[in-house]
Design goal:
Elements (H helix, E strand, L loop, with lengths): L11 H17 L7 E4 L6 E3 L3 H6 L6 H6 L9 H10 L8 E3 L1 H8 L5 E6 L2 H10 L6 E5 L2 H8 L7 E5 L8 H15 L4 E8 L2 H13 L5 E7 L11 E7 L5 H15 L6 E8 L2
Parallel strand pairs: 1-4, 1-6, 4-5, 6-7
Antiparallel strand pairs: 2-3, 7-9, 8-9, 8-10
Helix pairs in contact: 1-5, 1-10
């Protein structure tokens, strides 16, 4: 409830997460039938990088600012993501606004596709409602993200994605994510599930991966991007995404995209990693 993403908007973690989300949405749009997206921890939709909060940390300077500066050298697969960022910044070369996952999703989805947004913070949910007030196919609800999984799955479209991106304010967040995935998958086994997680203490990530394998769920892809050596857990060394039921060739696309992002952001350590935790 105390977490405010504006301090971290456009950071390397956002870049990695949203690049993965954009690739998934691009594949969902390849079929004509409508799809739905449930974003369980939605935030406010878009972020002002010139705000006092974002300027205080300046995390976007090492993330999206560097990526946009290197855009011409990046793989074509990043095109939809980069275009979504450009669409919010009306002047060429300007970088003031950054799309959170709800705005990114809505820009990449089609008018007939449905977006469901859950946000628990009372101020942020009102901002989110204003952001999408004129969008008839976007629904904003003031509720806990994990409860939203129980309330809304399976999606009526029977095709789409669930994005789980919690703030990690509580010590048992990894356990809660595993339980939420198990609940969601039992209700909607064919849906795509994308779970973001921080990489601080590697042992905690290993336990998370082990717990995912023990669920018995198949087709679990893991992608990670680190920018620091993992020699301390006192900082954020990187982040990862778990994708259940990933769309066709997502693994190959990430093997091209993530190293390119690592290089574009000027990281001097760490790297990219893509592998199957559980195959088909």
């Amino acid at each position: 409830m105390n977490y405010r993403h504006i301090f971290h908007a456009g950071s390397f973690t956002d870049v990695m997460k949203h690049a993965v989300v954009a690739l998934i949405l691009e594949r969902l749009c390849a079929k004509e039938t409508p799809f739905g997206v449930l974003d369980t921890h939605a935030g406010i939709g878009r972020y002002d990088l010139e705000s006092q909060q974002a300027s205080r940390t300046g995390e976007y300077l090492g993330g999206i600012a560097r990526v946009m500066a290197a855009a011409e050298r990046l793989p074509p697969g990043l095109g939809p993501y980069l275009n979504a960022v450009r669409a919010l910044n009306t002047e060429p070369g300007m970088l003031r606004w950054y799309p959170g996952s709800p705005r990114l999703a809505r820009q990449l989805m089609r008018p007939g596709d449905r977006l469901l947004l859950a946000e628990l913070h009372p101020e942020d949910v009102e901002t989110l409602r204003q952001e999408f007030a004129r969008d008839r196919n976007t629904s904003v609800q003031h509720m806990d993200g994990y409860r939203a999984i129980k309330a809304h799955l399976p999606l009526k479209e029977r095709r789409g994605m669930v994005l789980v991106d919690p703030p990690f304010e509580v010590t048992d967040e990894f356990d809660r994510m595993v339980a939420a995935l198990a609940t969601g998958h039992a209700r909607w086994p064919t849906g795509i599930y994308a779970l973001w997680y921080p990489i601080k203490e590697r042992a905690a990530v290993w336990r998370f991966h082990d717990a995912l394998e023990r669920t018995g769920i198949r087709k679990i892809l893991m992608a990670e991007l680190t920018i620091h050596e993992e020699d301390t857990h006192q900082r954020l060394n990187g982040c990862g995404m778990i994708v259940v039921n990933p769309p066709w060739q997502l693994d190959r696309n990430l093997e091209l995209v993530l190293p390119a992002l690592h290089e574009a952001m000027g990281a001097q350590a760490g790297g990219a990693r893509v592998e199957w935790l559980v195959p088909e």
